[in-house]
Predict the 3D structure of the following.
Amino acid sequence: METASGTAESPDPVPALAQEIFTGVAGKWALLILETLADRTLRFSELKRQVPGISHKMLAQTLRALERDAVVHRTVHPTVPPSVEYRLTEAGRELRGTVFGLCAWTRRHYAEIEAARRRSG
């Protein structure tokens, strides 16, 4: 029997994956990395300098997660020491546009949101 979310035997895996991806890309560091990479390629050290307050460990973890989710592409150049560069994938650039569309919406409706928050409490 077919259901709206897939078949009875195999439920649709997309909602669970989407929730996991949304949780990852909606984090503070992921959003800052998306904005910093924008339309350019940066080395790890350059990216770390340009993302205020991020630790080496958090940058590495966030980049690994973004790479796993096809948002960031990692290129290792065979130098000594190895040089590693990061850039947004096509999916990452599209995601950046989507995420920053939400930011634009917030800016457009800021006064309305603030007024509603004052009224509610």
